[in-house]
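so my prof wants the structure for this chain in the tokens format not the other one, which i didnt know existed until like an hour ago. anyway here's the sequence
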Amino acid sequence: MAAAPFIVMAASAAYKHEQEKAMADAQKQMQKNTNKMLVAQTDANYSELSDVEREEQAKTLDDSLSIQKEYIKNKGNVNVMAAAMGTGGMSMKSQLNDLSREKFSDYNTILEDRQARMDNLKSQATNMRYDSASRQDVRSISRPSNAALALNLTGAAVGGYTAQQSSNQNADLLKTVRTGR
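here's what i got, hopefully its the right format
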């Protein structure tokens, strides 16, 4: 019966230590899973941006081809009209120069629009990266150490010893009171 307080206190300290270890392990696993899901979500967002970028590239190509087709068609019209009217020289050259200037102006507009869209996509990707990094759970999760368990067990031993000594003194005092000695 003398060791009972120590055993109870030691068992309580050991049980608390194991609970704290299990809680720390569960928190670390939850942190790992959360971060893994965040990385997967960021990858999916990057993939979506890649699709948008490919669409932008295709649109730029289509627009450029449309301008080239329109230029060739208009140039052909100018040549046919000039041949039909029997004209040539400076007026025809002026019309062709106007068509060429218009074509390059349209190309320039397409390229500027494309660059603006690409800059926007780059900005979105950068924002995704920063957002993902800021939402990563990087806090430290500490597990209780075995040294802490040893200290708790030592405290339990001292507490148990103290409780036993107090109990013995109370028993001696009670015995003295009963016997009168």
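also thought this was worth mentioning. DSSP finds three helices and no strands in the chain.
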